[in-house]
Design goal:
It contains 13 helices and six strands.
Length: about 270
């Protein structure tokens, strides 16, 4: 259900450290209506506000005219981003199945580690969801680190053997809570983003083709779009000439078959 933007009192987004830190990095470059498309692409409040207002999040929402719309920024100011330790733990749990965290730390340059920690900074931790007492927050953080270093994968002759990588799930999830001015609350949660590792392969194929058709149609004729999709779907069987033709088609430099005709004419 898409709410009326004018009826939104506030929006709370609960996400992992990865998402929250991405948002933090972008904030220093936000110039509101004068922001660049690159900046707002990583700035969560703008993405949420534009998605609510337009019912979609595509390149259209990152055009200069859309970014200059003060109504989007008025709604973005009502968006709050929170660090959810549980969601961060899910990310690390999955990474620990395929990466030996003990090996990483053992071979890490500690000066580099201190620089990484300074980059993370206190901002994400000052926005931890739930406002738990400090001792509970520290306990939860310590538990996450313990799970990360306590590998569940097999160790064979002292070597780390990761779990089946094909089953890896990119737990890059988030939870959104929209509070309306009449007191009604709308909530939605996504554990694995569409298109990410862990989603069904056929679902990803359909979604990729849909997005390619949607965006490529802005600069390529329909025949070229269909031809490019067919070529990409059979990419491993293409020869050098076919790959070159595909690149030319996607660049809008030629139409399907035209390059072959041009070479034959020469």
């Amino acid at each position: 259900e898409r709410p009326d933007p004018g009826a939104v009192e506030r929006v709370d987004v609960y996400a992992s450290l990865l998402t929250v830190k991405m948002d933090d990095f972008s904030r220093a470059f936000v110039r509101h209506e004068a922001s660049s498309p690159v900046t707002v692409n990583f700035y969560l409040p703008y993405n949420v506000a534009a998605g609510i207002m337009d019912g979609e999040l595509t390149p259209v929402q990152f055009t200069p005219n859309r970014i200059r719309d003060t109504a989007v920024w008025n709604l973005a100011r009502r968006v709050r981003v929170h660090h959810d330790l549980h969601l961060t733990g899910l990310v690390l749990d999955e990474l620990a199945r395929i990466i030996d965290m003990r090996y990483v730390v053992r071979h890490m340059n500690w000066r580099a580690l201190s620089q990484i920690l300074r980059q993370v900074g206190p901002a994400p931790f000052s926005r931890i969801a739930g406002y738990k007492p400090i001792h509970e927050t520290l306990r939860d953080a310590a538990n996450i680190l313990y799970r990360s270093f306590k590998t569940r994968a097999e160790t064979r002759q002292g070597e780390f053997v990761p779990d089946d990588i094909a089953s890896f799930r990119m737990n890059f999830g988030a939870r959104v809570r929209i509070t309306l001015k009449n007191g009604r609350v709308l909530e939605s949660e996504q554990d694995v983003p569409y298109g990410a590792a862990g989603r069904p392969l056929e679902e990803k194929r359909i979604e990729v083709i849909r997005k390619f058709r949607q965006e490529a149609a802005l600069s390529l004729p329909g025949k070229a779009v269909g031809h490019a999709i067919n070529r990409i779907s059979d990419f491993e069987n293409l020869d050098h000439a076919a790959v070159r033709n595909l690149v030319q088609i996607c660049a809008g430099a030629t139409e399907p078959g035209k390059a072959r005709q041009q070479r034959a004419a020469l």
